[in-house]
Amino acid sequence: DDDDDDDDFDNDDDSQLCRIGDELDIQTAQLDSGNSITDAAVDHGTAPILSSGPLPSTTEWLVFKCIGVTKSAERQAILKSIVASHREGNKQLTDVPVKMECEPTNPVDSRAIAFQCLWQGSWHVIGYVVSELLDEVNMALSQNKITSVSFATIRYVLHFPESGPGYFAGIKVCLKGHWSLRAILSASTLK
Question: What are phi and psi of 176, to 5 degrees?
Answer without folding.
Answer: -75, 110
